[in-house]
Every structure is written in C-alpha cells, then in structure tokens.
C-alpha cells in the first residue's frame, strides 16, 4: 500500500523530468508524452523484469499508466521558461531516484532476493528511468556524468535492506531512506561535489 | 495463426528498415545483418518480456530467425540508390509499426492483460524495434522526432482492444486496425502533419 | 560449475572493458564503477531474461556482483596510459565475447531452447554487454563498426550447439569454442579484416 503510493509518486516526478527534457529538446506534445511515459515507467519495468514479477505492475494496474500521462500533460502546459528547465529536471530527478531506489529494494526483498541483490535492484530501478530518458533524447546519461548519482541510490536502497535485516520495516524507514538519498543527491548538485577522477599517467 | 503471419511480415519489413539504415550508415554485411535482426525482433522481444511470454516467440520458432536474415540479405544485395533510402525506410517502418501494434495488442489480450495495458503493450512493440535501430545506429529515435508516430500505433492497438471488448476478433479487425495505423502514419509523413509544440514563455 | 567459472571470468573481463572506456571518457570513480557493472552484467541479464531464467543468475549469487566491482576498482587504480587504453579494451572485449557466447549458448540449451535459438542467445549475450557499454558512453556500438564481431560470437555459440547435438559436452568443447571465437576476433582486429560493404549504385 505505502509501497504503491511511493511508486506512483516516483512515476509522477520521473514523468515530469522526461517531459521537461522533451520541452527542452523542443519535441511536440506526443514526443513529450512518450518521454514522460518511458522515464516514469522505465525503471519499474526493468525492476519487475529482473525480479521476475511479470507482467510488470504498471501493466496490471491502470493508475500506473494514467500518472505519467498526467505528468506529461501538466508539464506540457505549465512548464517554466527554458532557463529554469534544467534545474527543475535535476530536482524532480533526485526525488524520483530517491523514491524508486526505496521501492525497488523493498519489492526485491518481498520477492525473496538476497540483501545485496535487493540493494542492486533498488539502485537499478532508481537510475533506470533516467538512463532511458537520456539515451533516447541523446544526452549523456546523468548517471555517468561527473556527479554523485548511483551512490545515493545505493545508499537509500541499502538502508531499506539493512533495516529489513534488523526486522524494521515501518513506513518511516522507507521515508527516511528516500530522504537520505534525496538530500545527498541535491547537496551533491548544489555544492558541486565530485568523486575522484582516474589519475592520468 | 493469422497472428503469426502478421508477426512474421512485421519482422520482415522492420528487418528491411534496419538493413536500409545500415546501408545508409555504410556498415558492412554483418553490421547490416545485426541491425536487421535487432530491428525485426526487438519489438517482439520487448513485448514478450513485458507480458511474461518467455522465452519469446522468436526463440522457440526458427522461422522468426530466418525471416530477418532473409530481409537483411535481400536488402544488402538489392537496395536502391542512396537518395531513395530514407523514403523506403519510412514506408517499411510504417508497415512494421502497423503490424506490430496490432499483434502486440492481440497477444497481450491473449495473455490476460487488461485493455489499457494491452493497448500500451501494442504501442510499445510497434515502436520498440525502431527505437533500438535508431539508438544503435546513432539516430534520434523516430518516435521522438516531430511527427505522428506513437499515436497511430496506439490507435491501431486501441482498435484491436475495443473490438475485443465488443467480442469482435475476426481477422479483418486486425487488418483494418493495421491499415488505419499505416495510412495515418504515411499521411502524417507525406503531408508533414505536426503535433503542437510546447509554448516558450 | 565450469559454466559458472567461465561466466565469472567473462564478467570480470567485460567489467574491465567498461571501466577502461570510463577512464578514457574521464568519468569519475562512480561512473567508472557503473560502466564496469553494466558491461559485466548486461549480457547475462539479457540472456537470463530471454530464456526466462528469472531472477538472473547475477541477482541470486553475490559473487556475480563482487566480480565487476573488483574489476572496476582494479582498473581505476591500475589502468595504463591513455594511448594504450583502446587496445586493451579490444583484447578484453574479445575475451568477454568468447566466454559469454559459449556460456550463453550452453545455458540456453540447458533451458531447453532449440539449437538455432541457443546459438542466437549465445551471440546476444556475447555482444550485449559491449552494446550497453557503448550506447551509454556515446560510442558507436563495436558490433556495428566495420569489423568481424557478431560472426565469431555466433561461430563460438554454434560450436557449442553442434557439439551438444553430437552429445559432446565435455568442458574442453566449451573452451575450444571460446578459443575459436577469441582468436578469430583478435585476428580480425590485428589484420584489419573487413567484411563486404554494400555496393552503391
């Protein structure tokens, strides 16, 4: 139940990022709608395929399909000026990352995956939608650009997994894990945190 | 049975588009063959993975593998001059889109998916092969370029779904749905139909 | 057992190629780690999804996750000067291709797929990791560049399949098939073998 709500909110915010990137690329209303859907649903599709939960949740529950459409249409009509688009993409993307890494890890645990795998599935579902969005629209995937991205997702997923090992699975654990991921990701953007680069001999 | 035939024809025409893009990119015979196979089989793979029909049809029936190879070889030897390539890609791509959106929706219904999901699965299998072809060969995916593309696929898939709700599933329904998708797609290309762009404040 | 060892070695060498491409693209330590993981695990994920072996092997056995991390960290700290990177990518990539086409075909046979399909699954798992690596890092996928790539993978997978038909499945068959693929791929690079290009009328 709580899982579903977080999942739907994650789809909504990721859908917004897809639509915003579409606006930025000057796509038409249908291209924007497609980007909103693949970005919103992509991570969950990958997650459900990997854990064998087929057909994916988004294909057996119509709310999963309506949410990214609404996100895309709202963005199409209400998007801000071009100069603020990229900043908004980053903020909503951080929110989607935080929500999906948590719901992904939780669902993987529910399907009986071992702890480390559940943390990885959480990370993959967090970064999946953004990777698909960026590859389709010809951007370098954000996860590969020089910023802290996969790491906070792994951290958020890890908190869910460790809490589960300790038999803590109250809703506030999921929320706390999402907040940790979200805050670290935003701080990394704002402060320009960088991870070490390879030395060049 | 009728479904299989439509599926194989769809694989054939999508295989041709993959090979034509490969010719245009001046790939060698093997690169062209690979593009023909991923374009022909990609949409069906995604469809079968999403509805949980594993292994995918193309992996349990050898005809599914022979068809794109033949499409690729025919195209390699018989392709036209470079200046007519893009137009042919568009026509065959429209045919593949039309066939796959119909067979995808039909198969999803047969696997018990609800109507809206079946329409989405049909749309995804229609656009999937072209997306993979374009991403691999470094083109902006046709589905995102400013044209009517995902919409006729959704329409074709939708006709199949609505007809099914009305207990109409004669072969001519599938054919009619494919024709609707194909004609709208071609008209959109010929007449240069465009969907609304986001306003820029 | 032998299959698992070959699989883990394949993940290791593909992980190295992902990390080397990341070093070349001047990604930071986390971006490099992500590329190492998707390159090492991508082909096996695709294979297991296609044959319906869900969740994929890499998600139920923690060694599959540790191996690409180690490959990525080793490469991050010990990589050579920039001028030798591309050559190393090619060699390790050939090794990964050889190992995965063999283990992919073998696993597909074990899951009851028919011979031709098993050879195709082997080829796909051989080329899958490299395709994901190249698409994510904005390179033209090696499989589409003008070189012998998918063909030796199909040959290696084919040897495994034919030997299985002849009831030969000793470990040396798998090794011989991998060596054939590896040697042909390396010769094609060294000697600059090219496949025929389409004639331009």
UniProtKB/TrEMBL annotation, chains A, B, C:
It comes from the Bacteria. It is found in: Cell membrane. It is a multi-pass membrane protein. The keyword Amino-acid biosynthesis does not apply. It holds the Pfam family Gly_transporter. Keywords: Cell membrane, Membrane, Transmembrane, Transmembrane helix. Residues 5-79, 91-163 form the Glycine transporter domain. The keyword Cell membrane applies. Its main location: membrane. The chain crosses the membrane at residues 6-23, 30-50, 62-79, 91-109, 115-136, 148-164, 170-189. Belongs to the UPF0126 family. This is Trimeric intracellular cation channel family protein. It comes from Kribbella sancticallisti. The lineage of its organism: Bacteria, Bacillati, Actinomycetota, Actinomycetes, Propionibacteriales.
């Amino acid at each position: 139940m709580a899982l579903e709500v977080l999942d739907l909110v994650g789809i909504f915010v990721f859908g917004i990022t897809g639509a915003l990137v579409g606006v930025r690329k000057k796509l038409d209303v249908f291209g924007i709608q497609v980007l909103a859907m693949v970005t919103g649903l992509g991570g969950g599709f990958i997650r459900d395929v990997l854990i064998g939960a087929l057909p994916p949740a988004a294909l057996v529950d119509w709310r999963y399909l309506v949410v990214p459409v609404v996100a895309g249409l709202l963005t199409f009509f209400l998007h801000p000026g071009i100069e603020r688009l990229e900043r908004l993409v980053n903020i909503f993307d951080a929110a989607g990352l935080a929500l999906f890494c948590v719901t992904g890890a939780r669902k993987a645990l529910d399907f009986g995956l071992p702890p480390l795998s559940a943390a990885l599935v959480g990370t993959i579902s967090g970064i999946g939608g953004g990777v698909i969005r960026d590859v389709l629209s010809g951007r370098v995937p954000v996860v590969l650009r020089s910023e802290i991205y996969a790491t906070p997702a792994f951290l958020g997923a890890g908190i869910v997994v460790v809490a589960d090992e300790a038999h803590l699975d109250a809703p506030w654990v999921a929320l706390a894990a999402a907040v940790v991921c979200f805050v670290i990701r935003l701080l990394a953007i704002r402060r320009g945190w960088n991870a070490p680069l390879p030395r060049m001999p």
